[in-house]
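Handout, section 4.2: multi-component inputs.
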Amino acid sequence: MKRILLAEDDPAVSYILTRYLEAAGFAVRAAADGRSALAMFDAEPADLVASDFRMPGMNGEELLLALRARQPDLPALIVSAYGNELSVQIPGVRILNKPVAADELVGLVKDLLLDAETLALNRPKA
Amino acid sequence: MTTGSTKDEREQLPHDEEGGGQSQGVPALGKLEGNSYHPIGEVAVRHWQASQISRPGLEDRGNVFFAAIEMTRMPMVLTDPNQPDNPIVFVNNAFLDLTLYREEEVLGRNCRLLQGEQTDPATVAELRAAVAEQRAVAVDILNYKADGRPFWNGLFAGPVFDQEGKLLYWFASQMDITRRRVSEQSYLQAQKMEAIGQLTAGLAHDFNNLLQVVAGNLEVATATVHDPEATLESIARAQLAGEKASKLTQQLLTFARKQRLEPKRLNLNSLVVEFSDMLVRTLGDGVDLHLDLKPGLPACTLDATHMEMALLNVLINARDAMPDGGRVTIATSTMVDSERLERHGLAPGTYVVICVIDKGQGMPPEVAQRAIEPFFTTKGPGTGLGLAMVHGFVQQSHGRLEIDSVPGEGTTIRMIFPLAQQSGMEILADRLAGKGAKGAKWTPEAILGRRTILVVDDSHDVRELAENHLRELGYRVLAAQSGEEAMELIERYGDIDLLFSDIIMPGGMNGVRLAELVRARQPEVPVILATGYMSELPDAARPGATYTTMAKPYRLADLAERVRLALKTEARTASRGSAHGFQHEG
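Output:
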């Protein structure tokens, strides 16, 4: 079962995104801010990170940069309520606008995971 | 409007003498500056607010001063209060240019010919009061030209006496300030648009989150339709988010639509707390808002919308001064330092201060000095109206704006406001706290008169109806719109003599619960509960036998009777334990 780390400060949104992902068969751990997401990741890695953008203390972009420093090829996406105004310049990070439908989110997550698997399979062996 | 010095005050003031005593006058000394705007540019100090002349009469028209009056473009009028109805006896040509009347149309008539349909009767009354007291007066009044077009008149009028002090004439000067009034309105509008622009970005964010919750839960509900319990839970979650969203639009609309500006008693702490959602949204992610509110802050008399906008403006400046983020503090306190007050030209006493402190870039002195100048801005897209509006508002509220700024360290903006007049509730609070002087000799009638009733109803109109009626009957009335607010009042003002509450109220506390809480503090206090839905109450919320209930709709006479009976019972109960108890058997 693929492990997804979710960072989202609004509990109601966090609940619904978790439901979406769990219903699709993922194991979800939810953090309420960037720092606790980092701590969770350090305790146990994840296969993909989905993060809100605006959160107290550390925004989604900062969180993803910190995670990519730990694991450069980590699949990651941002779910933002800022709509198209947001521009995040991290390679490979996809942005979804809230409100996001279940199949849209799950579809993207599966897509990113498949891409990552593809990359892993084809990575030249050291 | 402002009025000049009284006769007694004028006697104490220095007099300017002209022409070796041919005339003398009392300088205005800035007393007639009612508005934040000064009609003649700067504070009017030297022009006379009242004068004494040695040669009365209107015939002397051969000197340069008469020519000056006819050459000036400032409209002027003389009236003769010794004739019936104080008629106009002289107008200069500029007056005719302004009003478009012909001279023969105005001579012999009272100045009220300039008034019309939309002229504010309160302003007219203020004007008349000043005239009756023979004091100078300055008002902005809506007048009408001969062709019916309205204009805002910045009117000044002052009395002219003979050497014995007998009133001879009223002198008045007019000024068309329509453009100023209109542009003030458009400043306000521009400001509001700017503030709304700032808010919209944040609101869109919050809305998208709420939409996520609504849409998401509905989607989950669809998927779990085989499990009614899960479906219901999802729907409840969606509903909750829907309610939050409508509250959000309400906030925005209230802010956007608020037009009528009127000063009211308010507590700046509550204003800050109630408005803090908006403030946080405006500050955005990078900046943390910290509140440092002095408990028990006295009330001020301010226009709430203006105050909110002023706060928003100062806060936007603070935010812009900290591009890398940081902390902004809103603090409230009181100021009594008489030296500092004097520097601001404020009378000694206690003032309320609200300040916004940032640790941003700060301003060099040359910028700080110009900060309140309209259209002065250091920001790219700024209008330069923010602090100018804040300054205007603070001045109009009889307060002062203080700017402390150190480059590289940050800026503190202080708004200093006078206290509101003491309200009935505060007088009551003082009395309950034993501060009243005549507490010892209360007669039974006085005790009866001082009975305090707490009226609680979420409907503003119903509450006001009961409140006014009970007050007319001589009771002291505290009023609250929710159980929470009622408890707060009791915390602040102490024991009450009777609780009259609606049962069904929004929020966590219904009337029955409120009654329980009040009884926990005051076990004997009579309680009257009103409801239109007695049969629909869940058992747990049914009032017990110890509360009197009243069916809605009720008649005020019935309410008065219930209150009287309840208080009588309570008085009898209370008198059992006391030899000097109250034994009224009305």
